[in-house]
Amino acid sequence: MGVGTAEQVIASSIVTASPAARAALRVRLAGLLYVTPAVLWVLVFFFAPVLIMAGYSFLPLDANGELGSVGTGDYRAFFAQGAYLGALWNSIVTTAIVVACSSLLAYPFAYGIARLVAPRFQRIALAAAILPFWTSYVVRSYAWLLALSPTGVINYTLRSLRLIDHPLILAYNPHATELGFIHFFIMLNTLTIYANLVQINPRYALAAQDLGASKWWGFLTVTLPLSVPGIAVGAFLTIVLCIGDYVTPQILGGFRELLLPQLIMMQIQRQLDLPMASAMSLILTVVVAMAYLAMQRWLKMARL
Description:
Helix content is 75%, strand content 0%. It is mostly helical and 304 residues long. It has two domains: 1-57; 81-303, Orthogonal Bundle (MetI-like fold). The chain is flat. The N and C termini lie far apart (56 Å).
């Protein structure tokens, strides 16, 4: 083959490849155009507020209540105050209890829908499971407050059965807060676990039984490990929503054992100390980030 023939072949291949390259470029530009609004939304309404909050956290107020010089005074004050650390600890403990209880209670519910309910009735069962999401979050919290009050349905039932002589103080304590959280997050965990369970082939457990495993052992060694991603996703969503929640602790928990979100609101509403509130918020964000890093191996959408 001569030199001229080789040059013609190369030129021909370039010409024929150009339309494909232009088409690929148009596809990439179209994809970039589609994601631009979402990226701008995240930048403006997430990253920008976080950066502003981070800047405020390093500008502690001076004696006159005005922004002072750049420093870490608010962070040092936070870790030096037992009340602040106690609120952070209360938030972590409450979140851990809620995650554990809601996951344990949601798993049998999700398993029953996925494995025991006929496929044509599963949508109805799921609709019944998410009914609490159809009501206002504040309304649910006040409904629990009424149920837990001295004249509420729980105390009334216990007194009618002559199990108690005086009403129990069920509201305005950490357990009331945990109960309100668990009621809400059971449904959230049910959805994530169910979404994972329906993708697990039931024949895997049957194969384990054919190899000599009992139904219970087959569940523990096959179904449960395969459903861990659904449990992890529900648990992480519970952590994110629970540890930063202000409404439920304020309505049901009272002021006996404050959670960190309550302290943040007090810094804003009563103390007008935006830098300290920003520092507390960033500390709470770091806690959530640590939870994500600890659970990230299970938080992959491809495993759901």
